[in-house]
Amino acid sequence: MDIQNPNGIFHWDLTGKTHPCIPWSREAIFPLFMAKLKTKIVFLCSSCGDDFPKWNGQCPSCKEWGTLSEFKASSKKSKGKTEIRDSKFLPDVLSGAPVERISTGIREADRVLGGGFLSGALILLGGSPGVGKSTLALHICSGIDRKVLYISAEESEEQVALRARRLKINSKYLHLSGENEVEGIITHIERISPELVVVDSIQTVMNTGLDSLPGSPSQIRDCGQRLLEVSKQRNVTILIVGHVTKDGTIAGPKMLEHMVDTVLYMDGDDRYDHRILRSAKNRFGATHEVGIFNMDSEGLKEVTNPSEMFLAERSINIPGTSVYPSLEGTRPILVEVQVLVSDANFGTPQRNLNGFDYKRLGMLIAVLEKRIGLAMGTKDVFVNLVGGLRVNDPAADLSIICSTASSTMDNPIEENTVLLGEVGLAGEVRSISRLEHRLTEAKTLGFKTAIVPAASMNDKVKKIEIDLHPVKFVKDAFKILF
Residue 416 burial by CB count (10 A; 0-12/13-18/19+): exposed, middle or buried? Predict the structure, then answer.
């Protein structure tokens, strides 16, 4: 309790003792009050990027748990004059010359980007540590015959130069910098005036004006915003590299996904040498496109025909195996599907998958038991898509359900047959997209027979020189196969 008397303010505690305090005066209190106003504590979600005035165990926006962290946000306004950009009339913009794309010199990367880089684009490249993000960034720098600035905040210039020598990178237009402060990076961009800037990685870039460590949500949010302003105002392409967490999401830079123009993910299995570059967001091209590379001692090599790579060690005349023409973006890729069915040794049967959705497999097993009459309640089912490729395409249903039946009945599927179609709960085979492109790829690799949905048949599909068997139900496909 505070007691006012003529000699000043005294604080009285529960023991009855009084302690003199600073006399109340505007001169004494006002500086402390203003210091509190300059900074405020907010809680930022590392998943969606929203901020909140108080901490919550669950983010109110994205409903993720344990993602809110505290950081100090400065409320001090900048005194600098803001530059106002002129507006443009749409017909004037459309009447101008079309925007030219900058080729990376790598066809697989150009495919995923939609034809190459656009000037003023901000691109986010994510991937787990060691998957090849920095290697791909150096290859892109080598393929562009224009001035490039490579900001390596994780390594020194000498370390990057040694890696560039091993990868045989063209250093004619490449500038290196080990700067990790965002103001210094902007100074380098103004001095060199490059057409492409690579920032590797965003978790190690910091703004010294913020009271937090590099990689924290506040640092990543502020540095990403500064790089976005530079990219749009100076019309320079910036490629930001970020690491991903164990669950596959970009750590920290997840909040940058709404800022950037393109989001790329690079993934790969440690058991295989190939790497897959995916497009999760692209304002200037198709999403879900993929580029496939092979990793060796000299870096990343393009894979021009991925179907041959995935079918190189294909199992022939073995029950439980089949071939399914997958569609990754606009590219058809033939994948071998392997299913092993065995008697369960425990009370609850196992359902182990690699590359396919667990819940969808449960649905297909239920269709097999209810509509076809195969007893699967006491069987262990193991599904593997060879090559480490993950498939979310419902057209794989027919191949997986037929492979499961093949392993259960110990009856192999003919080696020159491909199966594709979506399976419904009534046991029907539903139509799928881009059937013509899938069958053309299968014919090119020497397959003779295809079991396809009857609803997808049209004149273009019938012209393909392959033996077609249109089916309406799964039991019709079983009559042809078994």
Answer: middle
